[in-house]
Amino acid sequence: MDKFVRSIVHIDEEKCDGCGLCIPSCEEGALKIIDGKARLVKDIYCDGLGNCLGHCPQDAITIIEREAEPFDEEAVEEYLQSEQKIVGPLCTSEGEKVKSCAFTTSANLSGHQKEDTEAELTHWPIQLGLVSPEAKFITGQDLLIAADCVPFAFAEFHQKLLAGYSLIIGCPKLDDTNLYHQKLVSIFKNNKPKSIKVAHMEVGCCFGLSRLVKGALAEAGVAIPYSEVIVGVDGSMQGSC
């Protein structure tokens, strides 16, 4: 295929921290997180319009003029269809291969039927878009901000993460992060939670939740103890910080 000079995205790998916030904004699927960095999959998948630019908190993405193969809309459609067939509904935003999950539960460990456990949820609503900035269940309380997928992946979510915490959930990939940022700033200023714990999955796009919370904390100008828990797609707790 002939090449010619055209507009195309360029990623500064030194600036890119692999947060994955640019991935969902690229409707052509031209970007993937590979080896911890956002990378252009193929020149023919990039239309050069730069929809991903405004979603990079590190300003690692720019539009440059260079020699490249022309944008191929048909190739993009075939590529997206093939990705959907290969990856399926359990794919990560980086297009990683589906990982088989062997979730650990008390039933797996004991060989007996799992005993009933109590739910630790103390309030409603919990979805960030529905939570009022004046919500009293947050005021002076330990606050858990969890990515939507965490309670499904981590079997002991209620007992090991939620117990003793007020809860807010959201998705940094599919939800309106600009709205969430302003909502969190208001929540932190108005309610001043005692502490904040963020729980998210190990996949790249999910790290955007911690960046979102830290950014809102910085803008709110309040000093609140912060911690982070990372959950693996296999249901394990990968680590905390």
Briefly summarize what is shown.
The protein is built from 6 helices and 9 strands. It has 241 residues and is an alpha/beta fold.
Care to describe what's here?
- The chain has 241 residues and is of the alpha/beta class.
- It has two domains: 87 residues, Alpha-Beta Plaits, CATH 3.30.70.20; 135 residues, Rossmann fold (3-Layer(aba) Sandwich).
- The protein is built from six helices and nine strands, in the order ββββααβααβαβαββ.
- The strands form three sheets. The chain has a five-stranded mixed beta sheet with strand order 6-5-7-8-9. A two-stranded antiparallel ribbon has the order 1-4.
- Helix 6 links the parallel strand 7 and strand 8.
- The protein is elongated and about 60 Å long.
- The N and C termini lie far apart (48 Å).
- The relative contact order is 0.14.
What is the element layout, followed by pairings?
Elements: E1 4-11, E2 31-34, E3 37-40, E4 61-68, H1 73-87, H2 106-110, E5 142-147, H3 150-153, H4 157-162, E6 166-170, H5 177-191, E7 195-201, H6 208-220, E8 226-231, E9 237-240
Parallel strand pairs: 5-6, 5-7, 7-8
Antiparallel strand pairs: 1-4, 2-3, 8-9
